[in-house]
Design brief:
Elements lengths: L8 E5 L4 H11 L6 E5 L5 E5 L7 E5 L6 H17 L4 E6 L18 H12 L3 E5 L14 E4 L2 H11 L5 E4 L5 H11 L2 E9 L7 E7 L6 E9 L3 H12 L4 E9 L5 H7 L4 E5 L13 E4 L2 H12 L5 H4 L6
Parallel strand pairs: 1-4, 4-5, 5-6, 6-7, 8-9, 8-11, 11-12, 12-13, 13-14
Antiparallel strand pairs: 2-3, 9-10
Helix pairs in contact: 1-8, 2-3
Protein backbone atom coordinates (compact mmCIF):
# COMPACT_ATOMS: atom_id res chain seq x y z
CA UNK A 1 0.00 0.00 0.00
CA UNK A 2 1.28 3.44 -0.91
CA UNK A 3 -0.17 6.60 0.63
CA UNK A 4 0.73 10.09 -0.57
CA UNK A 5 0.20 12.66 2.19
CA UNK A 6 -0.20 16.40 1.71
CA UNK A 7 1.92 18.91 3.59
CA UNK A 8 -0.01 21.38 5.72
CA UNK A 9 1.14 24.67 7.24
CA UNK A 10 -0.38 25.76 10.55
CA UNK A 11 0.30 28.84 12.66
CA UNK A 12 -0.14 28.91 16.43
CA UNK A 13 0.33 31.92 18.65
CA UNK A 14 0.72 32.51 22.34
CA UNK A 15 -0.88 35.55 23.97
CA UNK A 16 2.17 37.83 23.71
CA UNK A 17 2.28 40.12 20.65
CA UNK A 18 -0.44 38.19 18.88
CA UNK A 19 -0.81 41.18 16.52
CA UNK A 20 2.43 40.24 14.75
CA UNK A 21 1.27 36.62 14.39
CA UNK A 22 -2.03 37.86 12.95
CA UNK A 23 -0.17 40.11 10.48
CA UNK A 24 2.02 37.18 9.34
CA UNK A 25 -1.10 35.02 9.10
CA UNK A 26 -2.72 37.61 6.83
CA UNK A 27 0.41 37.81 4.64
CA UNK A 28 0.43 34.03 4.20
CA UNK A 29 -3.30 33.64 3.82
CA UNK A 30 -3.25 31.01 6.58
CA UNK A 31 -5.53 31.55 9.61
CA UNK A 32 -4.15 31.15 13.12
CA UNK A 33 -5.02 27.74 14.54
CA UNK A 34 -7.51 27.68 17.38
CA UNK A 35 -6.15 27.23 20.89
CA UNK A 36 -7.27 27.85 24.46
CA UNK A 37 -5.02 29.56 27.00
CA UNK A 38 -6.18 30.31 30.52
CA UNK A 39 -4.87 30.61 34.06
CA UNK A 40 -5.79 28.60 37.13
CA UNK A 41 -6.25 30.48 40.41
CA UNK A 42 -2.75 29.37 41.40
CA UNK A 43 -1.27 31.07 38.34
CA UNK A 44 -0.60 27.87 36.39
CA UNK A 45 -1.19 28.06 32.64
CA UNK A 46 -3.74 25.79 31.01
CA UNK A 47 -3.27 25.11 27.30
CA UNK A 48 -5.35 23.13 24.79
CA UNK A 49 -5.28 23.10 20.98
CA UNK A 50 -8.70 23.66 19.43
CA UNK A 51 -8.07 21.75 16.19
CA UNK A 52 -6.01 18.89 14.81
CA UNK A 53 -2.36 19.50 13.91
CA UNK A 54 -1.59 15.88 13.02
CA UNK A 55 1.03 15.71 10.28
CA UNK A 56 1.29 19.51 10.03
CA UNK A 57 4.28 21.83 9.84
CA UNK A 58 3.47 23.98 12.89
CA UNK A 59 4.97 27.40 13.65
CA UNK A 60 4.46 28.50 17.27
CA UNK A 61 4.74 32.29 17.71
CA UNK A 62 5.63 33.95 20.98
CA UNK A 63 7.43 37.19 21.84
CA UNK A 64 9.25 36.79 25.16
CA UNK A 65 8.01 40.05 26.65
CA UNK A 66 6.67 41.75 28.75
CA UNK A 67 6.00 38.87 31.21
CA UNK A 68 9.15 37.07 30.13
CA UNK A 69 8.91 33.88 32.17
CA UNK A 70 5.18 33.40 31.56
CA UNK A 71 5.76 33.89 27.83
CA UNK A 72 8.44 31.20 27.70
CA UNK A 73 6.33 28.73 29.68
CA UNK A 74 3.26 29.42 27.56
CA UNK A 75 5.20 28.80 24.35
CA UNK A 76 6.72 25.59 25.76
CA UNK A 77 3.24 24.29 26.61
CA UNK A 78 1.92 25.09 23.12
CA UNK A 79 4.90 23.26 21.60
CA UNK A 80 4.39 20.26 23.87
CA UNK A 81 0.68 20.16 23.01
CA UNK A 82 1.50 20.22 19.28
CA UNK A 83 4.08 17.45 19.71
CA UNK A 84 1.67 15.22 21.61
CA UNK A 85 -0.97 15.92 18.96
CA UNK A 86 1.38 14.41 16.32
CA UNK A 87 2.57 17.53 14.50
CA UNK A 88 5.11 16.55 11.82
CA UNK A 89 7.54 19.41 12.53
CA UNK A 90 7.43 22.24 15.07
CA UNK A 91 9.23 25.57 14.74
CA UNK A 92 9.51 27.89 17.73
CA UNK A 93 9.11 31.43 16.36
CA UNK A 94 10.55 33.91 18.87
CA UNK A 95 10.70 37.42 17.35
CA UNK A 96 12.47 38.58 20.51
CA UNK A 97 14.65 36.07 22.36
CA UNK A 98 14.49 36.30 26.16
CA UNK A 99 17.66 36.31 28.27
CA UNK A 100 19.72 37.02 25.14
CA UNK A 101 22.17 39.27 27.01
CA UNK A 102 22.99 36.38 29.34
CA UNK A 103 24.71 34.30 26.66
CA UNK A 104 27.88 33.38 28.58
CA UNK A 105 29.35 33.07 32.06
CA UNK A 106 30.56 36.58 32.87
CA UNK A 107 31.52 35.54 36.39
CA UNK A 108 31.82 32.38 38.47
CA UNK A 109 28.73 30.47 39.60
CA UNK A 110 26.46 32.01 36.94
CA UNK A 111 24.09 30.19 34.56
CA UNK A 112 24.09 30.64 30.78
CA UNK A 113 20.48 31.76 30.79
CA UNK A 114 20.03 32.11 27.02
CA UNK A 115 20.91 28.42 26.64
CA UNK A 116 18.40 27.46 29.34
CA UNK A 117 15.63 29.07 27.24
CA UNK A 118 16.80 27.09 24.20
CA UNK A 119 16.81 23.87 26.24
CA UNK A 120 13.27 24.48 27.55
CA UNK A 121 11.86 24.87 24.04
CA UNK A 122 13.93 21.98 22.66
CA UNK A 123 12.80 19.56 25.38
CA UNK A 124 9.19 20.73 24.90
CA UNK A 125 9.45 19.48 21.31
CA UNK A 126 10.75 22.26 19.02
CA UNK A 127 12.50 20.82 15.95
CA UNK A 128 13.56 24.19 14.61
CA UNK A 129 13.94 27.73 15.95
CA UNK A 130 13.53 31.18 14.43
CA UNK A 131 14.35 34.59 15.86
CA UNK A 132 15.11 38.15 14.77
CA UNK A 133 18.34 40.11 15.40
CA UNK A 134 19.73 38.09 18.28
CA UNK A 135 21.76 40.14 20.73
CA UNK A 136 24.48 37.54 20.37
CA UNK A 137 24.91 35.22 17.39
CA UNK A 138 26.35 32.42 19.52
CA UNK A 139 22.84 31.67 20.83
CA UNK A 140 22.27 29.79 17.56
CA UNK A 141 24.94 27.32 18.67
CA UNK A 142 23.01 26.44 21.82
CA UNK A 143 20.50 24.51 19.70
CA UNK A 144 21.57 21.30 17.99
CA UNK A 145 19.37 21.78 14.96
CA UNK A 146 18.27 24.40 12.40
CA UNK A 147 18.16 27.91 13.87
CA UNK A 148 16.97 30.53 11.39
CA UNK A 149 18.24 34.00 12.17
CA UNK A 150 16.30 36.86 10.59
CA UNK A 151 17.44 40.47 10.51
CA UNK A 152 15.55 43.74 10.25
CA UNK A 153 18.58 45.33 8.60
CA UNK A 154 17.12 45.45 5.05
CA UNK A 155 13.96 47.10 6.38
CA UNK A 156 15.80 49.69 8.49
CA UNK A 157 18.35 50.31 5.75
CA UNK A 158 15.56 51.08 3.29
CA UNK A 159 14.05 53.47 5.84
CA UNK A 160 17.35 55.37 6.09
CA UNK A 161 17.75 55.44 2.32
CA UNK A 162 14.25 56.79 1.68
CA UNK A 163 13.85 59.16 4.63
CA UNK A 164 17.20 60.74 5.45
CA UNK A 165 19.71 63.10 3.88
CA UNK A 166 22.80 61.84 1.95
CA UNK A 167 25.25 63.36 4.50
CA UNK A 168 23.75 61.28 7.35
CA UNK A 169 26.16 59.69 9.83
CA UNK A 170 25.54 56.17 11.18
CA UNK A 171 26.35 56.09 14.90
CA UNK A 172 27.18 53.07 17.03
CA UNK A 173 26.14 53.71 20.67
CA UNK A 174 29.18 51.74 21.89
CA UNK A 175 32.12 49.74 20.57
CA UNK A 176 30.15 46.49 20.81
CA UNK A 177 27.66 47.53 18.11
CA UNK A 178 30.30 49.07 15.80
CA UNK A 179 30.43 46.01 13.52
CA UNK A 180 26.68 46.19 12.84
CA UNK A 181 26.79 49.96 12.30
CA UNK A 182 29.69 49.54 9.90
CA UNK A 183 27.59 47.22 7.72
CA UNK A 184 25.03 50.01 7.31
CA UNK A 185 27.74 52.48 6.30
CA UNK A 186 29.13 50.11 3.66
CA UNK A 187 25.74 49.36 2.17
CA UNK A 188 24.56 52.98 2.18
CA UNK A 189 27.85 54.74 1.47
CA UNK A 190 27.61 56.82 4.67
CA UNK A 191 30.13 57.82 7.33
CA UNK A 192 30.50 56.09 10.70
CA UNK A 193 30.80 57.51 14.22
CA UNK A 194 31.26 55.57 17.46
CA UNK A 195 30.35 56.63 20.99
CA UNK A 196 33.15 55.96 23.47
CA UNK A 197 31.81 54.92 26.86
CA UNK A 198 33.54 54.35 30.17
CA UNK A 199 32.30 52.77 33.39
CA UNK A 200 31.21 55.26 36.05
CA UNK A 201 33.43 55.50 39.13
CA UNK A 202 30.55 56.82 41.26
CA UNK A 203 27.50 54.76 40.24
CA UNK A 204 27.61 50.96 40.08
CA UNK A 205 26.72 49.23 36.77
CA UNK A 206 26.51 52.57 34.93
CA UNK A 207 28.31 53.47 31.71
CA UNK A 208 28.91 57.10 30.74
CA UNK A 209 29.20 58.41 27.16
CA UNK A 210 32.40 60.46 27.07
CA UNK A 211 33.40 61.12 23.45
CA UNK A 212 32.32 60.81 19.82
CA UNK A 213 34.80 59.25 17.42
CA UNK A 214 33.86 60.71 14.02
CA UNK A 215 32.56 63.95 12.49
CA UNK A 216 28.92 64.71 13.42
CA UNK A 217 28.74 68.52 13.60
CA UNK A 218 25.83 69.96 11.56
CA UNK A 219 24.94 66.52 10.19
CA UNK A 220 21.94 64.20 10.73
CA UNK A 221 22.87 61.22 12.91
CA UNK A 222 21.26 57.80 13.12
CA UNK A 223 21.97 55.73 16.25
CA UNK A 224 21.73 52.01 15.41
CA UNK A 225 21.09 49.36 18.06
CA UNK A 226 19.45 45.93 18.34
CA UNK A 227 17.17 46.83 21.26
CA UNK A 228 15.98 49.72 23.42
CA UNK A 229 15.35 48.61 26.99
CA UNK A 230 15.49 51.40 29.59
CA UNK A 231 16.99 53.72 26.93
CA UNK A 232 19.86 54.83 29.17
CA UNK A 233 22.56 54.07 26.58
CA UNK A 234 20.57 55.60 23.70
CA UNK A 235 19.75 58.82 25.57
CA UNK A 236 23.34 59.27 26.76
CA UNK A 237 24.53 58.88 23.16
CA UNK A 238 21.91 61.34 21.88
CA UNK A 239 22.83 63.96 24.47
CA UNK A 240 26.50 63.68 23.57
CA UNK A 241 25.75 63.95 19.84
CA UNK A 242 23.67 67.08 20.48
CA UNK A 243 26.51 68.55 22.52
CA UNK A 244 28.85 67.86 19.58
CA UNK A 245 26.56 69.79 17.24
CA UNK A 246 24.52 67.07 15.45
CA UNK A 247 21.79 68.63 13.29
CA UNK A 248 19.17 65.92 13.85
CA UNK A 249 19.20 62.70 15.83
CA UNK A 250 17.31 59.53 14.91
CA UNK A 251 17.29 56.19 16.72
CA UNK A 252 16.70 52.92 14.84
CA UNK A 253 16.40 49.59 16.65
CA UNK A 254 14.83 46.20 16.01
CA UNK A 255 13.34 45.52 19.44
CA UNK A 256 11.43 48.16 21.40
CA UNK A 257 11.33 46.73 24.92
CA UNK A 258 10.81 50.14 26.55
CA UNK A 259 11.14 49.12 30.20
CA UNK A 260 10.54 51.93 32.66
CA UNK A 261 11.66 54.73 32.55
CA UNK A 262 12.36 54.45 28.78
CA UNK A 263 9.35 56.49 27.60
CA UNK A 264 10.11 59.35 29.97
CA UNK A 265 13.79 59.38 29.01
CA UNK A 266 13.13 59.27 25.25
CA UNK A 267 10.53 62.05 25.40
CA UNK A 268 12.95 64.30 27.29
CA UNK A 269 15.97 63.50 25.09
CA UNK A 270 17.11 65.54 22.05
CA UNK A 271 15.85 62.84 19.67
CA UNK A 272 13.83 63.72 16.57
CA UNK A 273 12.44 60.24 15.91
CA UNK A 274 12.61 56.69 17.30
CA UNK A 275 12.00 53.87 14.79
CA UNK A 276 11.51 50.23 15.88
CA UNK A 277 9.96 47.11 14.36
CA UNK A 278 6.91 45.26 15.69
CA UNK A 279 8.76 42.28 17.22
CA UNK A 280 7.36 43.38 20.60
CA UNK A 281 4.11 44.97 21.74
CA UNK A 282 5.10 47.24 24.61
CA UNK A 283 2.44 49.19 26.49
CA UNK A 284 5.01 51.94 27.10
CA UNK A 285 5.36 52.45 23.34
CA UNK A 286 2.10 54.42 23.33
CA UNK A 287 3.67 56.97 25.67
CA UNK A 288 6.59 57.76 23.35
CA UNK A 289 5.79 60.92 21.41
CA UNK A 290 8.12 60.57 18.40
CA UNK A 291 7.84 56.84 17.75
CA UNK A 292 7.37 55.09 14.41
CA UNK A 293 6.85 51.32 14.09
CA UNK A 294 7.65 49.43 10.89
CA UNK A 295 6.32 45.92 10.37
CA UNK A 296 8.41 42.78 9.93
CA UNK A 297 5.35 40.72 8.98
CA UNK A 298 6.14 40.52 5.23
CA UNK A 299 9.74 39.38 5.92
CA UNK A 300 8.64 36.85 8.53
CA UNK A 301 5.90 35.52 6.27
CA UNK A 302 8.38 35.07 3.41
CA UNK A 303 10.75 33.26 5.77
CA UNK A 304 8.08 30.89 7.06
CA UNK A 305 7.00 30.16 3.49
CA UNK A 306 10.63 29.37 2.56
CA UNK A 307 11.02 27.02 5.55
CA UNK A 308 7.74 25.27 4.77
CA UNK A 309 8.72 24.80 1.12
CA UNK A 310 12.30 23.77 2.02
CA UNK A 311 13.79 26.80 0.27
CA UNK A 312 16.77 28.94 1.30
CA UNK A 313 16.22 31.48 4.09
CA UNK A 314 19.59 33.17 3.62
CA UNK A 315 18.63 33.80 0.00
CA UNK A 316 15.79 36.05 1.16
CA UNK A 317 18.28 38.28 2.94
CA UNK A 318 21.15 37.90 0.45
CA UNK A 319 23.28 36.54 3.29
CA UNK A 320 22.68 39.57 5.54
CA UNK A 321 21.10 37.41 8.24
CA UNK A 322 24.50 35.98 9.17
CA UNK A 323 25.89 37.68 12.27
Amino acid sequence: MEIVTKKRLQLLSGSYNIKLAEAVSKELGVPLAERELSRFASGEIRCRLGESVRGSDVFVFQAHNPSVNDAIMEQALLIDAAKRASARRITAVCPFWAYSKQDRKAAGREPISAKVVVDILRVAGADRMLSVDLHSGQIQGFFDGPFDHLTARPLLRDYIKSSLEPDTVIVSPDAGRAKVAERYTRQLGLDLAIIHKVRSHTVAHKLEARAVIGEVKDRPCVIIDDMIDTAGTIVAAAELLKKEGAAKIYVLATHGIFSEPAAERLNAAPIDKVVVTDTLASEAAHKIERLEVVSLAPLMAATIKAIYEDESVSGLFEGENQI
